[in-house]
Design goal:
It contains 4 helices and 8 strands. The protein has a single domain, classed as START domain (Alpha-D-Glucose-1,6-Bisphosphate, Chain A, domain 4, 2-Layer Sandwich), CATH 3.30.530. It is globular and about 45 Å long. 28% of the residues lie in helices and 41% in strands. It has 209 residues and is an alpha+beta fold. It has an 8-stranded antiparallel β-sheet with strand order 1-2-8-7-6-5-4-3, with helices on one face.
């Protein structure tokens, strides 16, 4: 049996790090760490809620949202005016169709929305007169043809920095059905908040494609 000298096969000891090499290594680690942090913290889109307030005042459910979308204003405007595609913006919107255009900048729009308050759900029909102006929409419901006693919604678009769009959305609704004061009102306000936020997330997605 041959005996092999262990020292003959061992690699030579590594050279000690100099001060300069230690600084270079530290800079590399710092740069890599910063890059990893940026990749984690920066959102893929600029969807930013700047203001959100839901309240119940004078028997009206009111919600106001100011949000910035990472999409150009003309594309956002086009998505909001594509009424037939509203169900693709929010799964709660079951149907949407234009009944007529009584004037060049006026649309009679019928929608059916699924609303759930806890385990209780119902479909709400609404017929609205939508007035179109430059980068703005005003929708007022016809109570005689809707499941609401009152409904008014206004959305306004303004250009923001770096090609983004700021949206101000204000809605006020008096349902045509009973909403229990205990728990029901809170759930109704939460539904308004969640549904509107989800809708504009999808508006941003479609407008930026």
């Amino acid at each position: 049996m041959n005996v092999i000298d262990a020292h003959a096969s061992s690699p030579p000891p590594a050279a000690p790090l100099t001060r300069g090499s230690r600084r270079s290594g530290a800079r590399a680690v710092t740069t890599l760490t910063a890059a990893l942090l940026l990749s984690v913290t920066l959102p893929a889109r600029a969807f930013t809620i700047e203001h959100s307030e839901a309240r119940y005042v004078d028997k009206r459910f009111q919600y106001e949202l100011v949000v910035k979308l990472d999409a150009p204003i003309d594309r956002v405007d086009a998505v909001l005016r594509d009424y037939a595609e509203y169900p693709s913006l929010d799964g709660r919107i079951l149907t949407a169709r234009i009944l007529e255009r009584p004037a060049p900048d006026v649309v009679m729009l019928e929608t059916t929305v699924r609303i759930c308050l806890g385990p209780f759900c119902r479909n709400i029909k609404r017929v609205e007169r939508v007035e179109e102006s430059k980068h703005a929409l005003l929708a007022v419901a016809d109570p005689a043809r809707s499941d609401v006693e009152f409904s008014e919604t206004r959305s306004e678009l303004t250009p923001a920095l770096h090609g983004t769009t700021r949206v101000k959305y204000v809605t006020s609704v008096v349902p045509g059905f009973w909403v229990p004061a205990l728990g029901g009102r809170r759930m109704m306000l939460k539904t308004l908040e969640t549904a509107t936020s989800d809708l504009f997330m999808n508006v941003e997605k479609q407008a930026s494609e």
